[in-house]
Design a protein that fits this description.
By secondary structure, this protein is of the alpha+beta class. It has helices at about 10-25, 65-75, 100-110, 115-120, 130-145, and strands spanning about 30-35, 40-50, 50-55, 55-60, 75-85, 90-100, 155-170, 175-185, 185-195. Strands 1, 2, 3, 4, 5, 6, 7, 8 and 9 form a 9-stranded antiparallel β-sheet that branches. A hairpin with a 2-residue loop joins strand 3 (about 50-55) and strand 4. Helix 4 crosses helix 5.
């Protein structure tokens, strides 16, 4: 694997992501996101990448969800993209911060009406007695918001600001290519890693 030592890691991510979008069967934007609980226990789940640039990687959620509560306690997080179709993986480690209200509004209002209603109806990560209860809540909010529901105050985006990124490409006989980009005093230090 050739790596341009002057390339910003997000630019390299962008080129790999474009390749993955052409060949992944489902959700090339799917990424695992890890947070840490108050007692230091890691927690991982799949979320969808909704935007990225050199400031970081953005996903959206309910601010009352387990992941949001864990971010509030410990703002360190990690992401992992695994694209089987191109046999590549990207790991990202950094600090997690809320995106601006404008960014959250822009994404929220770009979603289908059903997804907007779903954001209101779901009390994400809380116990649910039955699916019927959720469907009833959806119907209630459909009646309440016939046209354009506002963004719920408890829903919005987070950005993981990278301080370390690792690029992994599958190699024959498990001799994979791995490169680590680490932010050191505002410059990216690049090192090849043993597989």
């Amino acid at each position: 694997m050739e790596i341009n030592l002057n390339e910003h890691p997000v630019d390299l991510f962008s080129s790999w992501f474009e390749e993955a979008k052409k060949s992944e069967i489902n959700d090339p934007q799917a990424m695992s996101f890890s947070s840490v609980s108050e007692d230091g226990c890691p927690s991982v789940r799949m979320v969808l990448l909704r935007n990225f640039d050199k400031r970081g990687f953005v996903f959206f959620t309910n601010y009352n969800s387990r992941k949001a509560k864990e971010i509030e306690i410990n703002a360190n997080g990690a992401l992992c993209f695994h694209w089987k179709s191109i046999r590549r993986q990207v790991r990202v480690i950094g600090r997690v911060e809320k995106v601006s209200d404008n960014e959250s509004d822009e994404y929220y209002f770009s979603r289908p009406l059903g997804s907007q209603i779903g954001a209101w109806a779901s009390r994400q990560s809380e116990y649910l007695d039955s699916r019927e209860k959720l469907i009833k809540k959806v119907k209630e909010y459909e009646k309440k918001f016939l046209d354009k529901p506002p963004r719920p105050p408890f829903w919005g985006g987070f950005r993981l600001v990278p301080k370390e990124m690792e690029f992994w490409s599958d190699g024959k006989f498990r001799l994979h290519d791995r490169f680590n980009f680490k932010l050191v005093e505002e410059a990216w230090e690049i090192n090849r890693l043993y597989p």
